C-alpha cells in the first residue's frame, strides 16, 4: 500500500461517515464524533503518520469543530484531559524503569545468568528466556522494549553458537528459541497489570466505563492463577509442538559465563536499580495501605533514579519512545472518553440489549470474551484494539451483567490483550522483530499462532467460569 493511499483511506472514512445520516437514537453531534473516532482507529491500523500524531489530529479536529461542548473552554479541557490522567504518567514512569534496566546493565545480566544456569539443554534455554522475560515484565510496560529490546539481542546469539541460522538449519535451535520468546512475552504481558501499556489504558477505560478502579493486586488475583500455568507450560509445549532438533546445548552456559565476565562484578547502580524495582512493586501492590497511589510511587522512584544517577535528566527528556507513548495514549484516552461524553456508549448499550438479553450470563460472557479476542486478527496494534473496542464491550457489559460480574469480566477482557498478541505475526510489538529474525516462516507462524492462540483463549474462558 502506497503512502498516498494510507493518507487517503482515513480521510475517506471520515468523509463517508460524516455525511451518512445518524442512526436512530444518536445525535448528529455524536455521529460526527464517531466518524472522527473511526477515522482515528483506521489511521492507527495503517499508520500513514506516527500513531501519536494520529491521536493528536483526532482530538484537535474534535476540539476545533466544538463537538465536546458549547464553549471553547469545554473543548480544550476535554482535548487535554488525557494528559492529566494518572495512568498515562504511570506508563511514562515505567518507561524510565526500563531505561534504568538497560543503562545499568541489570536486564542483560539477569538474562545471561538465566542462560548460564538453565541453558544446558534446549528446553532449559527455553525456560531461561522465559524467566528472563518474567523478571523484567512487572517493570516494563513495553513488551517491545522487554522482548525485542532486552531479550532479543541476547537470545538471538544463542542459535549462532550451534550454527543455526535462518538460512541454515533454523529448526536446530533458532526456531524454538524465537517462538518461546514471543509466546512467553504474550503470557507475561497478561500476567501483570504493568507488563503491557494497553493494560493500563484498558484499566483507565474500565474506571470510566464502569466506575470500578482495578488495582495491581486485583488484576493479579485473577490473572496470575491463569497465567502462571501457561507460563510454566509454554516452553515445554513449544518443545513438544515445534521441537528443536538440537536437544543439548552445553556451549550456551559457557558463552553466557564469558559474557558475564565481560560485564564484570555487579555494580552499585545495579543493586540500587534492583532495590528500587522491588520497592516499586511493593508499593504498587500495597500502596493503598500507605495512602499512596501507584503513579505517585512510580514518579517518586523515577526521581530517586535520576538523583542517584541511574539515569540522567537528559535521559528523561530525550526519551523519544516514552514521550511518543505519553502523547499517543493521552490523546487516545481523551478520544475514548469522548464516546461516553457524547452518548455513543449509552446508545450502543441500549441498541445491543434487545439482541443479547435472552442469552444466559455465562454464554454472554464467553461470547464477548471470544469475540473481543478473535477480532484482534484485524488489528496490528493492541492499543488500537483497546481504544476501539474496550469501551463498546464495557458498555454492553454494564447493561447486561450484574455489578458482581463486572469487575472479573473487565479484568479478563483487559487481561486477554497480552495473550491475543500471539495469533498473528503483527499482533503485538515484538512480533515483527522475532518474525523478522527469519527463523519461522509466515505459514508456520500463522499455524503456531492458531494453536497457541487457542490454548491461551481457552485459559481466559476457563477464568470466566472460575471467577465470574
From TrEMBL:
GO terms for molecular function: transmembrane transporter activity. Its main location: membrane. It is found in: Membrane. The chain crosses the membrane at residues 7-23, 29-46, 53-70, 76-101, 122-140, 176-201, 213-239, 271-287, 294-313, 325-348, 355-378, 384-402, 409-426, 446-467. Coiled coil: none annotated. Keywords: Membrane, Transmembrane, Transmembrane helix. This is Sodium:sulfate symporter family protein. It comes from Arcobacter venerupis. The lineage of its organism: Bacteria, Pseudomonadati, Campylobacterota, Epsilonproteobacteria, Campylobacterales.
Amino acid at each position: 500500500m502506497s503512502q498516498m493511499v494510507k493518507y487517503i483511506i482515513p480521510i475517506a472514512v471520515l468523509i463517508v461517515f460524516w455525511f451518512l445520516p445518524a442512526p436512530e437514537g444518536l445525535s448528529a453531534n455524536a455521529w460526527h464524533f464517531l466518524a472522527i473516532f473511526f477515522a482515528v482507529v483506521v489511521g492507527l491500523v495503517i499508520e500513514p503518520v506516527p500513531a501519536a500524531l494520529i491521536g493528536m489530529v483526532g482530538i484537535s479536529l474534535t476540539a476545533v469543530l466544538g463537538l465536546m461542548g458549547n464553549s471553547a473552554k469545554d473543548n480544550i479541557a476535554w482535548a487535554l484531559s488525557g494528559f492529566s490522567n494518572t495512568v498515562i504518567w504511570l506508563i511514562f514512569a515505567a518507561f524510565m524503569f526500563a531505561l534504568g534496566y538497560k543503562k545499568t546493565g541489570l536486564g542483560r545480566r539477569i538474562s545471561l545468568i538465566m542462560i548460564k544456569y538453565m541453558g544446558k539443554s534446549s528446553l532449559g534455554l527455553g525456560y531461561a528466556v522465559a524467566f528472563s522475560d518474567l523478571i523484567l515484565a512487572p517493570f516494563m510496560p513495553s513488551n517491545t522494549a522487554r522482548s525485542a529490546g532486552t531479550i532479543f539481542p541476547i537470545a538471538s546469539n544463542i542459535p549462532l553458537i550451534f550454527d543455526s541460522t535462518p538460512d541454515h538449519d533454523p529448526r536446530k535451535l533458532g526456531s524454538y528459541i524465537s517462538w518461546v520468546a514471543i509466546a512467553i512475552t504474550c503470557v507475561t504481558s497478561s500476567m501483570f497489570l504493568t507488563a503491557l501499556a494497553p493494560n493500563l489504558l484498558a484499566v483507565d477505560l474500565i474506571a470510566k466505563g464502569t466506575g470500578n478502579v482495578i488495582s495491581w493486586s486485583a488484576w493479579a488475583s485473577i490473572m496470575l492463577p491463569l497465567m502462571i500455568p501457561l507460563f510454566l507450560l509454554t516452553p515445554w509445549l513449544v518443545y513438544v509442538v515445534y521441537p528443536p532438533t538440537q536437544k543439548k546445548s552445553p556451549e550456551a552456559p559457557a558463552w553466557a559465563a564469558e559474557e558475564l565476565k565481560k560485564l564484570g562484578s555487579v555494580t552499585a547502580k545495579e543493586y540500587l536499580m534492583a532495590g528500587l524495582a522491588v520497592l516499586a512493586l511493593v508499593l504498587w501492590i500495597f500502596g493503598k495501605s500507605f495512602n499512596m497511589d501507584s503513579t505517585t510511587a512510580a514518579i517518586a522512584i523515577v526521581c530517586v533514579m535520576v538523583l542517584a544517577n541511574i539515569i540522567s535528566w537528559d535521559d528523561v527528556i530525550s526519551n523519544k519512545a516514552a514521550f511518543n507513548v505519553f502523547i499517543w495514549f493521552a490523546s487516545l484516552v481523551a478520544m475514548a472518553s469522548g464516546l461516553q461524553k457524547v452518548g455513543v456508549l449509552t446508545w450502543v448499550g441500549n441498541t445491543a440489549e434487545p439482541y443479547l438479553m435472552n442469552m444466559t450470563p455465562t454464554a454472554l460472557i464467553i461470547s464477548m470474551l471470544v469475540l473481543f479476542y478473535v477480532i484482534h486478527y484485524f488489528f496490528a496494534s493492541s492499543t488500537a484494539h483497546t481504544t476501539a473496542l474496550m469501551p463498546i464491550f464495557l458498555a454492553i457489559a454494564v447493561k447486561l451483567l450484574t455489578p458482581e460480574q463486572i469487575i472479573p469480566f473487565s479484568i479478563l477482557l483487559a487481561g486477554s490483550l497480552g495473550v491475543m498478541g500471539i495469533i498473528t505475526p503483527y499482533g503485538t510489538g515484538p512480533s515483527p522483530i522475532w518474525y523478522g529474525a527469519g527463523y519461522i516462516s509466515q505459514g508456520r507462524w500463522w499455524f503456531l499462532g492458531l494453536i497457541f492462540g487457542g490454548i491461551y483463549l481457552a485459559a481466559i474462558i476457563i477464568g470466566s467460569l472460575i471467577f465470574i
